[in-house]
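During the second half of the funding period, the structural biology subgroup turned its attention to how the target accommodates small molecules. The most pressing case was 4-nitrophenyl phosphate, which had performed well in the primary screen but for which no bound structure existed. We therefore specified the complex as follows and requested a full 3D prediction, including the ligand pose.
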Amino acid sequence: MRTKVLMVCLGNICRSPLAEGILQNKVDPDRVFVDSAGTGGYHIGNPPDPRSIAVAKKYGIHIEDQRCRQFGPADFSEFDLIYAMDQSNYNNIIALASSQAEIEKVKLLLDEVDRYGREVPDPYWNDNGFEEVFEMIDAACEAIAKKL
Ligand code: 4NP
């Protein structure tokens, strides 16, 4: 059975598409399935933000074929691990959980590393934020890939 990991942010166009692409790049696809979703529904069906596509490409990771989808309660049974980019995403995910077991699948991504604090900042309104966000997500995904 493959381990299924879901990366979640608000829009599913900036942070979680990067997390999906970065982790995918570090694991064996026969053993680990990675997907991403957003708690909000603003960008459903859209490709990732061009700034996320660009920073990923710079590091040899291709995320341009991803399409935005919204997180839903069915994702709790579909996925083994659900990583939230920030506390607000975490709270929005937990609000849809229907058991303690579902709640326990959800973690803050940066709790996997002991630097950078606990939240991946939302870079949507900050043109300079994407490089920093990439670095944080990459460090956390490195730690996750080692454990999986
Ligand atoms: P993300 O960034 O949660 O990292 O995808 C955002 C993208 C879009 C919006 C908010 C955050 N938005 O409000 O449209």
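Two results from this model are relevant to the next phase. The chain has a mean pLDDT of 97. The first helix runs from residue 15 to 24.
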